User: What shape does this take?
Amino acid sequence: MPLTAYFNEIRAIVDDAMDRLVPPSATHPAVLHEAMRYSLFAGGKRLRPTLAMAACDAVGGARSRVVPFAVALEAIHTYTLIHDDLPAMDNDDYRRGLPTSHKKFGEAAAILAGDALLTLAFEIISNLRNFPGVSPETLLEVSRHTANAVGSVGTVGGQMADIQMEGAEGDMASLEYIHIHKTGKLIAASVRGGALLGGGDNDAVNAITEYGKNIGLAFQIVDDILDIEGELASLGKTPGSDTRKKKLTYPALMGVAESRKLASRLTDRAIGHLAILGSGGERLSDLAKYVIARAF
Ligand code: GRG
Assistant: This one.
């Protein structure tokens, strides 16, 4: 099956589960639930859910064991985007081709929609009934690891460092810290969680985690490049915002050509970690290639 068809298949499964697991728009207070659903269903790529499902596929796990986790990942990712777009952070007007949450619903509702999505994600992950065939120990470990990946030593820490470094001189170590934490950790947690829930053994889970760390960083480097070279129509957000905000990025530090080479090296390294999975790792390998070739 071509990768686009795979993305579409996963999107349909995840969107259907999301519709069931997220309270309906009319639930009181309606503006909050409308805002949560507005951003969730605004047309994201579903990259993290797809990676989690592909990791589960790679270890031969039943997909039913990972679908609610995939929904939770998208809820977490969507909360980071809503909060990142706020006036106190990146102050962006467009996301996924639509007005940002605070532009449509106001700042208070946007903050609370983000808070509610993050909380809902862990409500979903910690409900054993959502994960048929998964042991409580495995679920607890996935929950702990995911929380760690998105907290103060993960995504939130990366975002704080990113804000602190705006307009500053910056060096490679700070840049690597920001990108690994802001973006890479959630991507790595997506594949690790998918492999664990799919019942992968230690070697497979560790190999897939290393794969995730490498594509996580490659993904953010490509995002930096797209901010320079991308088009508004395909990105769904205004390009050039990193430069305007004097963000510390790979192209700013090493130029676009070297950044591309680095993303490519990281992708090769990621694919190298899949060797122990044999043909089971092919889909993850295709996804790694997609990460560096993507245009949005
Ligand atoms: C607010 C705690 C907090 C964290 C924000 C992820 C993040 C940290 C900020 C988003 C800013 C940004 C553009 C980061 C680059 C990487 C990234 C997460 C891009 C968007 O992810 P995609 O391309 O988006 O998967 P879609 O819309 O397709 O889901």
